[in-house]
Write a structure and sequence with these properties.
The longest helix has 26 residues. Helix 3 packs across helix 4, helix 8 crosses helix 10 and helix 14 crosses helix 15. The N terminus and C terminus are likely disordered. With about 1250 residues, this protein is an alpha+beta fold. The termini are far apart. Helices cover about 25% and strands about 30% of the residues. Keywords: Repeat. This is WD40 repeat-like protein. InterPro entries: GPIID_WHD, NPHP3-like_N, P-loop_NTPase, Quino_amine_DH_bsu, Quinoprotein_ADH-like_sf, WD40/YVTN_repeat-like_dom_sf, WD40_rpt.
Length: about 1250
């Protein structure tokens, strides 16, 4: 075909300017093999030849790409050809926004296209070419068509699509009212193109020679093709192999006009050849493979399958009669009709799918159980296949797709060997497989494997007993993998080799991963009580006032409180990143769909906060006349809607708070009758104000509930009238039960919404037809729908959250935490995590039943039936007593004990060698939380301070031996701990910020907001002053027991005082702290805490280096201060290093190392010698630091973690109301080399330190 004379599709898609009268879409449809893909390629080449911006995508049935992949591909191509779009993407990257193939397709569409690309002014039209649209899964196709229909007419975008003339594509085009022009291929429409194609392949001499002997060769080929371009392509390939007129005639005569006959002829020739077995094997793999195989992979699987080794990889097409093609080293069938024919029973080369999948699954599992996936012999290195092992080319396919083939094979006698192979895999090489998956940087293969294995195991019950050991092992591993992905996924991606040691140790003791790979293999232990089983509740937050509202964005979630504050937390680590002040009880919260914007509302005030997460700042506020009933954003976050108690819906522009026209959701009949009475016999018809308003911008529907009235649905976007949904049994004028809550299913494929009634019924209905679908009696009062539309959560009067499959209202599981009434539920953006509000608490749940991504948006082709599993039994989480939460912890000197202060005023003693609690004291009043704890080993004195400012010093004797294993020994230990002597009890004059004990335990210092007080048991209050105002901080001199240090970091001044009477030893101006040159020239604020230990004359702290990603380690040498009375300044040294991630908090100094917690949750240490500039050779040899282990993010609840190094090998940390002892974990060591850029970091491998 000549590019200078484009065919009709090219003319149609490029003709004329983009006007409202010109359809945006051009639809080319025709039967299989009729040249639609060829036409698409020609359109693309033509557009590119005339310098028009063109993005294209080919849907392939064997790949099943997700909508996210399609959208990102189109966006990337548009950015490559358009400078404006490319500049927009760079701005997104600079702002820290990340979107990848795991992102939700709705978010990608709203954020990239609706929010950015389609809002830009384009200098020329943009063109999209989408081939084989009917190969897109039907559920995703409906969503895609819905997206297309919402493109504004002013957007200069022209779209060329091809498909078979299927009713599904046409129905969706009509349903979404998409205007288009249509062209058809096949028969007469394609004959001209086939004629041009045939003439381009045949030389004029051959045509003339054939015509002289047999007639018109071109006309005969066109006639028998019946307009099917694929047929013509295949026949031309066979004619190329005919070297005589007679052979050409024979070829044409033997090939019937039906495609199946054509394929049968090709297969007959294959079966008659010596390569019949080889061809059958190749076709089996090409047809059944989840993704196209490379030529090297195909050569290897053929060797593994039938023990035949191909010499070269360029003969595949010839061996298989050109039914397959090799393009860019990928082997595929030349058209979908080939696959359909080969798997149909009419084919003599019939390839049974189930049997073929079983055989492929068997080979994959055998490969996974082989030496290529054997775990490493030591913990020093990850498992790496031998470079000389030829079958390593099959590693990626086997590890990624073995579960796909398991899910697609039907249970039978011939598949009985698969389950033992799977059991062997889970018993031996599964950790290496997890490491390989994590190394890809994506967890989607792990999630997809979980889904496929669930399908396989559900089917396997037909031939295997559920009590079978291999079945039990596989089932338990699948359950563990769900939690493993959720809890340890980020750390696995960052450090894949941690799967061999850290992850099994940190998994619950009852988990199969811990049982098989950590129970006896390591001397390291996690000592606590909560980590025996997986907990459905990941975290829980307690607040000083009632939690009234919650909103969730992709990376953050926010909780609105009754005291008027809004707490913003990071989803990954549950860190508090911001605290906002609304000014009145925050009854409503909502987050943006594609941006980090947040809107809050009280009784009369609405505030919008921009920036996102830690950068949230007030944009504007507005006063409303009535109480807001809910809050929501438009799809592109440009508007915020505020439904009010009087039925009005205020609308504001998010950017500047300008009030827009109200959103009209009430019909004239409702609005006019809402304030009027009827005339009939004095009977009152006045409607009350709405009790509830819920709006779905995605569907363009609003639900309005009045008291004792049917639910009203307003189709405000289409301008249709308001309709009433009459619950079954209340159709004939009966007063219906009160509507308590409504949840829309935002997935346009579902056509569902849910309503909770006061009579206890939970009802689902079609919002378009008002047909009632399902009913479940639950007494639910709070509803929430997951963003993907698959799950409905209902909170009932028994404080239970019930999770349903929205479609069908099938109960999946019930979650009970034995706490207060559920006030609100919201799902995270990934639909697998949910949050609830109960009283003063916010709980974070991640039930195993909520898989990461339903199969409707996955690249695999299996059905999502495994999601509709039978409802699990009631799930009860470990009850967390908020009053028992640990608020302070201190180590008892060099002993094996730690003291913990709790929120309800008690102090507990814990043995870190066994992890058990030894004793509990109630020195302070009950329900007054302990704020500070200090221990003096020399005087055996514990100093505790509570929230009421009460300060108590107690002398007690710790047991000399901690080897209490028998009941008698434990009783003796408790009796010894109960022997204590109160020596001091006073109440400070103001809120206590710090508490210290002098080295000889003779005096006690408390620093308050207004100053400091020094007390002694014998003399009471010795001194009272105001030296420590302005955030100054005290520190006991580490080498001089008679002195106290006071750091005023705001003024960068150090003061020295005497412990005995708090007398000053330095001049009033203090000693100036001189910063190093790299910090002196830039405004920088030092930390309020320096770190040291007794006997060490150097103080340390860490700081983020200005204008750099490096971390600065500051050291202050106290030996430089000879005489405090005459010293005027002291120099601080700085050692800057590039760490893998920033320092989150310093755990302290133990022996000769500084221990700290990194931003990614790793406990790390660095030698003090490498930080001392005066140490010989330190600056040149300090090339690394040590990474020991990571703390799971779900254990890092709340603010700064409370953790201490309790001995040379162990760390104790606080988790809720427990002390967790990570015994021996400091023995894991890896030398992490300092890098100038984090991206250059090599793979980190934790190993066991050996002597």
């Amino acid at each position: 075909m000549d590019a200078n004379h484009p065919p009709h599709p090219v003319k149609a898609i490029t003709s004329g300017p983009s006007k409202e009268t010109t359809p945006r879409f051009l639809w080319l449809n025709g039967p299989p093999g009729s040249g639609k893909s060829v036409a698409s390629g020609h359109v693309i080449r033509y557009l590119e030849s005339v310098n028009l911006d063109c993005a294209h995508f080919f849907f392939k049935s064997n790949e099943k790409p997700s909508l996210t992949q399609f959208l990102l591909s189109m966006a990337l191509q548009m950015a490559e050809s358009n400078f404006q779009i490319r500049h927009t993407f760079l701005a997104m990257m600079e702002e820290g926004e990340t979107i990848d193939s795991h992102s939700d397709h709705v978010m990608v569409w709203n954020n990239i296209f609706l929010g950015r690309i389609f809002k830009m002014t384009q200098s020329q039209p943009q063109y999209w070419v989408i081939d084989a649209l009917d190969e897109c899964p039907s559920r995703l196709l409906a969503t895609l068509m819905s997206m297309f229909s919402r493109i504004e007419p002013t957007v200069p975008l022209r779209i060329f699509i091809t498909s078979r003339p299927s009713g599904h594509v046409e129905r969706l085009l009509n349903q979404e009212r998409i205007m288009r022009a249509e062209l058809h291929t096949g028969q007469a429409e394609s004959l001209k193109d086939i004629d041009a194609f045939v003439r381009s392949r045949l030389s004029p001499n051959i045509i003339q020679d054939f015509k002289e002997e047999e007639g018109d060769l071109v006309a005969e080929i066109i006639e028998k093709s019946n307009g099917i371009f694929l047929w013509a392509s295949l026949i031309m390939t066979r004619l190329d192999e005919a070297h005589s007129i007679e052979a050409m005639r024979k070829t044409l005569d033997q090939v019937p006009s039906e495609m199946s006959g054509m394929y049968s002829g090709i297969l007959e020739s294959i079966m008659d050849s010596p390569n019949a077995e080889l061809a059958h094997c190749v076709l089996k793999w090409v047809v059944c493979a989840r993704q196209p195989l490379t030529t090297d992979e195909l050569r290897e699987v053929v060797r593994l399958d039938i023990n035949q080794t191909l010499r070269t990889s360029d003969r595949f097409a010839q061996i298989c009669g050109n039914l397959i093609t090799v393009d860019n080293d990928l082997v595929q069938v030349m058209h979908q009709t080939v696959k359909e024919f080969l798997t149909g029973e009419q084919s003599d080369y019939y390839i049974p799918r189930s049997w073929s999948h079983a055989r492929i699954a068997e080979l994959c599992l055998q490969h996974l159980n082989g030496r290529n996936f054997s775990p490493p012999r030591t913990r020093r290195a990850p498992a790496v296949p031998s470079k000389t092992d030829n079958n390593a080319v099959f590693d990626d396919y086997a590890s990624t797709n073995f579960s796909y083939h398991l899910a697609h094979c039907s249970p039978s006698e011939s598949t009985l060997e698969l389950l033992p192979l799977l059991g062997t895999f889970f018993s031996s090489n599964v950790l290496t497989w997890i490491e390989r998956v994590a190394k890809t940087g994506r967890l989607s293969p792990l999630t997809r494997t979980i889904q496929n294995l669930k399908v396989y195991l559900d089917r396997q019950v037909a031939t295997s007993s559920p009590l079978d050991s291999d079945y039990q092992l596989a089932s338990r591993f699948v359950d563990d993998l769900v939690r493993l992905s959720a809890i340890h996924g980020p750390n696995l991606v960052n450090t894949p080799s941690s799967i061999y040691s850290l992850v099994p140790l940190l998994c619950p003791k009852s988990s199969i991963i811990h049982w098989k790979f950590a129970r006896e293999q390591f001397r390291q232990k996690v000592l606590c009580t909560f980590n025996n089983d997986w907990d459905e509740r990941l975290s829980s937050f307690s607040f000083p006032s009632r939690a009234l509202s919650i909103a969730c964005a992709d990376q953050f979630f926010a909780v609105g409180l009754g005291d008027g504050s809004i707490r913003v937390y990071r989803q990954s680590t549950f860190e508090l990143v911001n605290s906002l002040q609304h000014g009145e009880p925050v009854r409503r919260l909502a987050s943006g769909n594609i941006t980090g914007v947040l809107v809050s509302a009280g009784l009369r005030t609405v505030r919008v906060w921009g920036g996102g997460g830690a950068k949230h700042a007030l944009l504007w506020s507005a006063t409303v006349p009535e109480q807001p009933l809910s809050l929501l954003f438009s799809l592109d976050d440009s508007k915020v809607y505020v439904p009010l108690r009087n039925g009005e819906v205020y609308a504001y522009r998010v950017k500047n708070g300008v009030r827009l026209d109200e959103l009209a959701i009430l019909g004239e009949d409702l609005s006019s009758s809402s304030d009027s009475d009827s005339d009939g016999g004095g009977h009152m018809q006045k409607r009350t104000m709405p009790m509830l308003i819920r709006i779905s911008p995605m569907l363009g529907i609003a639900a309005i509930a009045h008291r004792s009235s049917h639910l009203q649905l307003s189709y405000y976007e289409s301008g249709e009238r308001v309709e009433a949904f009459e619950k079954e049994g209340y159709e004939d004028g009966w007063i219906p039960p009160q509507v308590l809550d409504v949840a829309f299913n935002e997935n346009p494929e579902q056509n569902l919404m849910a309503v909770a009634y006061q009579d206890g019924d939970l009802v689902t209905l079609d919002p378009w037809t008002l047909q009632q679908k399902q009913t479940y009696h639950l007494n639910a009062h709070t509803l929430a729908a997951s963003p993907d539309g698959h799950t409905l959560a209902a909170g009932d009067s028994e404080c239970v959250i019930s999770l349903f499959a929205f479609d069908g209202l099938r109960l999946l599981c019930r979650i009970e935490s034995l706490e207060e009434r559920i006030m609100g539920i919201v799902f995270a953006g990934n639909s697998r995590r949910l949050f609830d509000l109960r009283g003063n608490t916010c709980n974070v749940w991640e039930p195993a039943v909520l898989i990461k991504k339903n199969l409707t948006d996955d690249s695999s082709s299996e059905e999502a039936d495994d999601y509709l599993m039978p409802a699990s039994s009631l799930v009860c989480t470990r009850t967390f007593e908020g009053s028992k939460a640990i608020t302070a912890m201190t180590r008892a000197g060099e002993s094996n004990y730690v003291f913990c202060g709790r929120e309800e005023g008690s102090i507990t003693v814990h043995d870190v060698s066994s992890g058990r609690m030894c004793a509990e004291f109630q020195y302070h009043a009950r329900m007054v939380d302990i704020r500070h704890l200090e221990w003096n080993a020399q005087g055996k004195v514990l100093f505790s301070v509570d929230a009421s400012r009460r300060c108590i010093a107690t002398r007690l004797t710790l047991p000399t031996s901690t080897a209490a294993t028998t009941a008698v020994q434990k009783q003796q230990q408790q009796l010894q701990l109960q022997q204590f002597e109160p020596i001091l009890d006073f109440r400070a004059t103001d809120t206590v910020l710090q508490a210290l004990i002098s080295p000889d335990a003779s005096t006690f210092l408390v620093s308050t907001q207004s100053g400091e007080e020094l007390h002694s048991p014998s003399s009471g209050c010795i001194a009272q002053s105001t030296h420590s105002q302005n955030k100054a901080r005290w520190l006991s001199h580490p080498t001089d027991p008679t002195r106290l240090l006071l750091f005023d970091n705001e003024s960068e001044v150090l003061h020295v005082f005497n412990w005995k009477d708090l007398s000053r030893e330095t001049p009033a101006r203090g000693i100036t702290i001189d910063l190093p040159p790299e910090l002196a020239s830039t405004p920088v604020t030092l930390s309020d805490e320096w770190h040291s230990r007794p006997g060490l004359g150097t103080l340390l702290q860490t700081i983020a280096m200005p204008h750099s990603s490096r971390t600065g380690f500051l050291t202050l040498d106290l030996s430089a201060i000879d005489d405090p009375a005459t010293a005027t300044s002291v120099q601080v040294a700085c050692t800057a290093r590039q760490l893998v991630s920033h320092v989150k908090s310093v755990l302290g100094i133990h022996r000769s190392s500084l221990f700290f917690l990194s931003g990614r949750g790793w406990v790390c240490s660095i030698s003090l010698k490498s930080l001392n500039p005066n140490s010989a050779g330190s600056s040149s040899k300090a090339g690394y630091y040590i990474r020991h282990f990571f703390i799971p993010s779900v254990w890092q609840t709340g603010g700064e973690p409370i953790a201490r190094v309790v001995c040379k090998t162990s760390v104790a940390m606080v988790y809720r109301d427990e002390v967790v002892v990570l015994q021996g974990f400091l023995e894991f060591e890896h030398k992490a080399v300092f890098e100038e850029e984090e991206s250059k970091m090599r793979a980190l491998v934790p190993v066991i330190k050996t002597s």
